[in-house]
Amino acid sequence: MEDTIFILGEDGKLIEMNESFYDSEDLLQRLLNDYPKLLAGSQVNPEDPRRWLLISREVVPRELNI
């Protein structure tokens, strides 16, 4: 069973969120750096949720345009 996520629009209506791939690994790394709560912690163990600490961004090679 897939979980569905909704956001509440300004008009009070629910908007279903659709899963999509990130445009690039660099974008994903930047989002995780800026918003560490994207990584689930409470879903693993709600009584003792995991906590994340950014040590350093992963080094990702630039994509080659061949």
Write the layout of secondary structure elements.
Elements: E1 6-8, E2 14-16, H1 25-34
Provide a descriptive summary of the structure in words.
By secondary structure, the chain is an alpha+beta fold. It has a domain of 45 residues. Helix content is 15%, strand content 9%. Strand 1 and strand 2 form a beta hairpin. The chain is flat. The N and C termini lie far apart (40 Å). The mean pLDDT is 79.
Rg is: 16 Å
Low-confidence stretches: none
**Euclidean distance between termini CA atoms:** 40 Å
Element order, helices and strands?
A: EEH
How many extended strands?
2
- Shape descriptor reads flat
- Mean pLDDT metric: 79
Which percent range fits the helix content? 10-25%
Number of helices: 1
Summarize the structure.
By secondary structure, the protein is an alpha+beta fold. The chain has a domain at 22-66.
Please supply descriptive tags for the structure shown above.
2 strands; 1 helix; 66 residues; alpha+beta; flat; two-stranded antiparallel sheet
